[in-house]
Amino acid sequence: MVKTGDVLNMADGWKEVFERSRVVPPPSQTVRLALDNHFTQSHCFQLSLSRLAAAHLPQSKEMSGGGQDVTHQLRVTLFDRNHQRFFGKTWRSPPQRMKNNKISLNEVLYFHTSLLLPSVVMVLELVSLSSRPDGSRPALGRGFAVLELFTNRPVAQAADQVRRLNLHHGSPRSLLHPLLKDKVDYGNLLKTIDGAHFDCVVKKHPALNPAMHLLPENVLVSGNENIPGLATSPTGDALLRPQLLKMLPFTLNRLTISLQPSLEKFESQLLHLINADCHNTKQPGPESTPRTVIIQERRLHVGVHNGWCFLDKPHMVVLEPLASGSRGRSDSASKQSTLGKDSSALSTLPQTLGLRKSLELRLTNHHALAIVFQLEYVFSAPIGRETMLSATSVPRAAFLQCLRWGIWCPFQEPADWKGEEIQLVLRGGAEPNPHGVMVYSTEMSAKTQSPAPLSAPGSAQKDTMKFRLSSSLERTASSPKASLRTKQEDVLRHRRSPLSPSRGQKSIPPASPPESPQGPGLSLSQLAATSRYPTISHSSSALPWQQSFPSLLHPSLLASAHQLSHVAFSGVSNIAHMEMDLQREGDVSQDEGDQLQELPFTPVHAPVITLGMNVPSSCSISSKCSLAHLYSAGFPDILDSAGLAAEVLDPTEHVPFDLQREESDPFQGNLLVFQFLAFTRTPVADVGPDWPENIYFTFQFYRFPPVTSQQLKLLTGDKVQQKASGLVPCVLASINRDGTVNSGPPGLQVQFRVDRAFLKPGEKRWFLRYLALHTMHIDIWDSDSLLLIGSTAVELKYMLRQGKSGVQALHELEVLTTDYVGEDALLTSADAGRQPALSPMTVHTIVRGRLHIRTGNIGCPVDPRRRRVADLMASHSNIITPRKVIGGFKGGSLSSRNILRLNARLEMDGACNLNEPDGGRRKLNCMAAVHRRESKEEAKVTGWTKEPLLAGQLYHLKPSERHNKAEGIANMLSQAITTQHLLYANLGSAEYMEFVLKNPFNVPQTVSIHSDDPELSAITNTEEWRYFKARAKTLTPQVENMFRSEEGAPGPRVYLRPKESIHIPLKYQSFLCDHTMALQGPSFQPTGKGSQAAKKNLSNIVAAKTIKVTFKAEDGKPIAIFQVNVEPTPHVVDQTFRLYHPELCFLKKAIRLPPWNDPTVGDPDVRTHISVRCSDPNIICQTRMLAPGEPRDVYLKVPGSPSPNIKMFFVMVFTDKWMAAPAQIWQLYVHFLERVDLSCVTGQQSCQSVVLRGKQAVRKVKCFSSHPQEIKVDPQGVFVLPPAAVQELQLKLQPWRAGSRFLYVNAVDVNNRRLVTAWLLCLNVHRPVLSKAFEMCVPVGGGRGSSRKITYTNPYTSHRSFLLRTDHPDLLQFKEEKFQISGGESYTIGLRFAPSQSPGSVEILVYVNNLQEKTEETFCVKVNYY
Fold first, then answer.
1. Other C-beta atoms within 10 Å of 1173: how many?
2. Angle at 1406 between CA 1403 and CA 1412, to 5 degrees
3. Which of 38, 124, 156, 910 has the most CB atoms around it within 10 Å of its CB?
4. CA 253 to CA 801: how far, in whole Å?
5. What is the pLDDT of the chain when averaged over all its residues?
6. What span, in angstroms and rounded, lies between the C-alpha atoms of 1045 and 1148?
7. What is the DSSP letter of 523?
């Protein structure tokens, strides 16, 4: 057994850190205000203090004599000026002397806070320290400054520029003056010291986010502080780029607690004191019945503490009283022991408290890291009158009290506890502890009203805890079911969102019991039961017990501020939520066929983020010279209908949108113009400075067909390139078929005309809404390599004219692309059992350039000669009523009623078979009879003269011709009862219709509804019918439970009374469309169009079709036919995604959905119902319901295709329950490529062979790579690929960055600009083995850099030539990149380091390669810029 002894002796390292990091909490009102403003997430910041200038600092009498012993110190504290309270922890700088009235601080502070409020400021005080003969150094305030951290917009923090703060007279204590309360500006009330100011910089520091859990909130620390859990940095600033120590899993089990002199006496004495205190503090009243306080629960909080804070929320487990030498559960009566309980049978009473299950902890090897234990009891007291019944039959209130606590540092020397039982002494009383609560003291109780002290002062008996700690990596899994349950509860605890407060109750931060995570000793229902009791704030003047309890019960001396904030009450039941066995030990099932329970799983791959409102930046950053060059290039002007230049709008300003003003515009036509002007290259390390040379664009506007532009060349004037010091925009010019540059106006112009002839009725509002809210996605491609350069999006709201004759706007858009990079981590024995998916790849966003585009909208008058589409369409009505008389054929007119009556008569006569020889004659007789019945006058002329003629012709026909003629006549008859409707459908949008069905018979009928296409169906759900009626604003009657569905029936059935007419609700909705697309590559210039044109591809729309819905009577004969002619219309694409994946493999991807709130629902906590559909039935597309506040993803599973195929499909996202219309439509392109896996080392060249197979024709092929500086393809130029030939290609790869990466190689037909084959290179790049390591310092802003030398000795005996390479060519240059050296001789490598403008450190690798680019030696030079 390992005895830890006293806590203070055992944890000196932890105690030193703990006493130095005590924190004053912020005002509770400020915390509540931050929560009301939804500031729940903490943000990290960096404060850089450069220097202090104090030219006229006032001198004091004490310092006038001994000025040489005077030093100065800076003190920084957070302050809440609304409540006039300092909080956090005061940071003190090292004492420094003042030189030339200046103090060079050069200090960097870090902190994180969630109080992003304007009232939170930072106070910087300058004090002077003078030495006295007695050795003391009193501090004298010399002035202070106030730094405002957050403005009214907390997200937009202060920029990185230097901020100058004036120094004020006096002490920061003057901020507590009543005159300064609620003052926003202190400048008028504080006197400034002339010539004294601070220089500082405040900025966000996201690099601190991974280490945020190691520091408490609102604490200012410097990078050289001792923070357990954080690795030390060679630069001395461990928080600039924090590196965390590895956390290892440990298991704590066999935990028992012994309370002296015994558990029974300890608890009896404790209850006696509480009951006596409640009786003494009770106010007089009519009720004199004593109230009994009982022990409800015994809890233990276990957490890992680093002296600053808990690394994670402490586990809360329930302890059980255990008998001596027994591990079983004691009788439940012992849990509610009272003062009057008999204690004669001590042999059967529990002696210790024990933990049934094991506890999982994560620790790191640091001497100041401690495990903190806190023993806490839950007491309950009756609220109302207590009767002679059981104590639990009346409502009771619960309160908490901490009884004991202890700490243990497992990694403090000597660490000989492995495999041994640890005995820890528990403490009590008033002394600082990590939980910050008042702790019950036995000695204090003995000196009060205790009749018999538990133990005499100085007694050797102490309260102890025993447990074992073992590494989870070394131990065997003894209880798989318990560990699985623990992991399930831990995952559920992390994914559980906080409960929303009830109505009429303020949002109060949750108390400790509901907030504490659930440990393995708790059941699944305990925390839910605990959270039922609302927390009572102690901010009121009345005590919590006084304001909540009807009984006059007051808090005792045991109650503390921590305890009062945890009081819970319930008016109907007690809080009995003791631990419950989910599966008792005696009832363990031996069935081996139990089904595994699925754990909550979140995909580790990074989801694709939708653009939403985060569009690329459109602000102009080009220089004046570059803009002048751009405007002088001769682009065509955008002129309105009067020939004047359109009004120019600023894309950085807000554009008002008035729908009524747009609809009342006299120019009802709109000519929308997109002018692609120029492209600005951004220097990229992996490609050359002239990349790209030729580009083309692909995009789609509104529901027009997709557009693919021709090749555009990037032109840059030599004069401008020499004068401009920054990036120069390259003017775009179209390329002819022969490769020459077109002599016409530069740029590319694409026009779209939207007028009454194009829009459908009621569509103009949707089009205007599309311009106001949407962005147009543009893909930019390299026309030589057919590789995607990047994507951008332009806001269309600047094309709203708002009554003007014409508008235009110039946009400068960032072209972005994403790069997936994985970390290169060495695989250790501890990681051997982990899944590779636990190391997700990091997604980097790279700016590849800036696109200059001009958008315009010209108002056009309406041409009366052009017919509207609405004139050709049927009326836009949802009610379809059959006409009484329908002209079905040339010979006359037929009514459905007479035809049905005549059919019934012929059926009884047996004369309805048209396949018989005289079937046609009988049908003609039927037609003539019907004609005579409806039109007697016309029958005398038409019917009798045509019948013998038709009968004679039919008699001389052959049998096959007679059969075809019979079918034609039957079709004519069916047309008489057919109602046609023209429907214009969009992808995913539901079209609602109501067909008026009438029973033509005098007897009731049960009519069945048959549809020959499942996309057109009847709406049988009453709630769905009501939703579509409200959406279509139809006032027709609705019948509840009108349809009857039977299993195996072809469709629903409806009952009709004689001559009754009802409305049948129908819905047409299609999720399928044509996925054919144009081949990848630029289009060629159309003949006679000049440079102002682009190719418009065929649109992917729903296929045109004709659908019939037949209403059949009970005898199977149709009584009505509803024919819907579907005319497809293109749909609007909201966003476009391009994904790359290996061929013939399933693509599994997640796309992050933007946050959606239903405006029709008043409660913001109600989740929006989101569902998704895909236009390709072979693709699995789904989304899952998550907790409120959690982001939602759309999961895709796409089957693979051969390379270089591109699979295109659409994803429709619906936010309504019945999926009436998609809220967004996404267009996805999946590029399938041949996969090549490579494992290599940085700096060293590796070769890989791939095979290129020829097609049916001879082609001229050239290979291109996405990273030309790292991949070289042999052959490099154009080569001929014969039909069905096999060409071997050599890929020479020399990467410079370690980790997992993806690179691309395309084989392009240079004549037709078409992709032949594409390869996806999946690299696993490792770091090289270092031979030597060096470290040097370079001053920041030196201007000239620094030079160093490294000596290299040839290890060979012969003469050799070597090459010098580096992974940072922008920071390091060699004196000679190639050198020759004889065997055994040494060579001095000259290094030249470029200067830097910002402090920091970087590791630069120097490779010594042979002529075959194989690495001989690798040196690491760490450069510290200071």
1. 19
2. 145
3. 124
4. 73
5. 76
6. 38
7. -
Cα(257)–Cα(462) distance, integer angstroms: 11
* Cα–Cα nearest to 1365, from 1316, 1419, 1317, 1319: 1419
Q: How many angstroms separate the Cα of 1373 from the Cα of each of 590, 723, 1366?
A: 71, 27, 8
By residue count, the chain amounts to 1426
Burial of 1311 (0-12, 13-18, 19+ CB in 10 A): exposed
SS3 track for 624-642? HHHHHHHHCCCCCCCECCC
Q: What DSSP line would sit under 329-364, residue for residue?
A: ---GGGGG--TT---S-TTSS--EEE-SS-EEEEE-
Across the range 307-328, mean pLDDT stands at 80
Share of the chain above pLDDT 90, in %: 32
CA pair distance 1173, 523, nearest whole angstrom:
39
Taking only Cα atoms into account, the Rg of the chain, rounded to an integer number of angstroms, comes to 41
Taking a C-beta distance cutoff of 8 angstroms, is the pair 1191, 1203 a contact? no
Which run of H or of E encompasses 495? helix 480-495
Residues 6 or more apart from 120 whose CB is under 8 A from it? 30, 78, 79, 80, 113, 149, 150
Q: Which two tokens stand for residue 831?
A: 């990681």
Q: How far is 997 from 992, CA to CA, in rounded Å?
A: 16
Lowest pLDDT segment from 171-185, 606-620, 758-772, 1048-1062: 606-620
Answer yes or no: pTM beyond 0.85.
no
Q: How far apart are CA 190 and CA 188, in angstroms?
A: 6
Q: What residue type is assigned to position 718 of the chain? A: D
pLDDT at 831 over 50: no
For residues 278, 282, 288 and 293, what is the CA-based torsion angle, rounded to 10 degrees? -20
Helices and strands of the chain, counted as H and E runs: 22, 67
* Spatial separation of the C-alpha atoms in residues 1253 and 1317, rounded to whole Å: 9
What is the Cα–Cα distance from 1216 to 241, expressed in whole angstroms? Answer: 46
**Token pair of 5 as six digits:** 């002894």
Q: What residues have CB less than 8 Å from 667, skipping those under 6 apart?
A: 641, 801, 805, 859, 860, 861
Q: How far is CA 194 from the centre of its chain?
A: 50
Percentage of the chain beyond pLDDT 70 is 70
Map residue 515 onto helix, strand or coil: helix
pLDDT tens-digit readout, 63-108: 555 455 788 999 999 999 888 999 999 999 999 888 888 888 889 9
Q: Which neighbouring-strand residues pair with 850?
A: 680, 814
Query: For 1129, how many CA atoms within 13 A lie in the half-sphere containing its CB?
Result: 16
Say if residues 152 and 118 touch (Cβ distance below 8 Å).
yes
Q: In what order do the strands lie in the sheet with 978-985?
A: 978-985, 1118-1128, 1105-1112, 1005-1011, 1053-1056, 1043-1044
Q: Report helix, strand or coil for 457.
A: coil
Asked whether residue 317 carries a pLDDT value surpassing 60, the answer given is yes
388, pLDDT greater than 50: no
Q: Which residue has the tokens 């004294």?
A: 196
| Cα 518 to Cα 522: distance, rounded to the nearest angstrom | 6
Quick one: tokens of 1415? Answer: 């690495």
Q: In the numeric block, which tokens belong to residue 258?
A: 């012994």
**Do residues 1176 and 1199 lie in contact, with contact meaning Cβ atoms separated by under 8 Å?**
no
pLDDT at 291 over 90: no
Secondary structure (DSSP) of 1250-1266: EEEE--SS-EEEEEEES
Query: For residue 734, what are its two tokens?
Result: 């179209």
Amino acid at 1042: M
Token pair 């030589």: residue: 784
Residue 1160 has pLDDT above 60, yes or no: no
8-state DSSP, 244: B
Query: 């501890």: which residue's tokens?
Result: 830
Tell me the per-residue pLDDT of 1355-1368, one tens digit each, with 9 for 90 and over.
999 999 999 999 99
